Amino acid sequence: MTNDPDGSTGPTDLVGGENGAFIDYLGLEFTSVEADRVAATWVARPALHQPYGIVHGGVHCSVVETLASIGAGTWLGERGQVVGVNNNTDFYRAVSEGAMTSEATPLHRGRSQQVWIVETRDGDDRLVSRGQVRLQNLYPS
């Protein structure tokens, strides 16, 4: 999330606004940011590879964490903030290049925690990775 010059913060900044250096480095382009769904596209490329020439698992985990956090924060809104407390990501298909599409949807949204599922698919709509993030809802004191 980013801070606008007027001091506001929030996931809505991500569509048509500043994303932040890490999100920009990942190359995430958000196509949907809603309380029930977050979607983004990105490109597997050499800068994201591990030494064996495929996208590093940490990149997949980062995409999962980012989309889940944005979705959870959008749903919680001005009531508070969210912070990830667990990220479990499985890798199903190694990729080295090409367009990726990632989509986050909620599995559970409660008073104190949320759980979001994020799936990433390649250009042929094959499942590349699937992650689950548990987030803590933090409320102002």
From TrEMBL:
Q: Name one Pfam family in it.
A: 4HBT
- What keywords appear on the UniProt entry? Hydrolase
Under Gene3D superfamilies, the record lists:
Hotdog Thioesterase
For whether the record's keyword set contains Zinc-finger, the answer is no
Question: The Thioesterase domain covers which part of the protein?
Answer: 52-128
- Name the NCBIfam families for this protein: unchar_dom_1
Report the sequence similarity comment from the record: Belongs to the thioesterase PaaI family.
Q: What is the protein's given name?
A: PaaI family thioesterase
Organism the protein comes from: Nocardioides alpinus
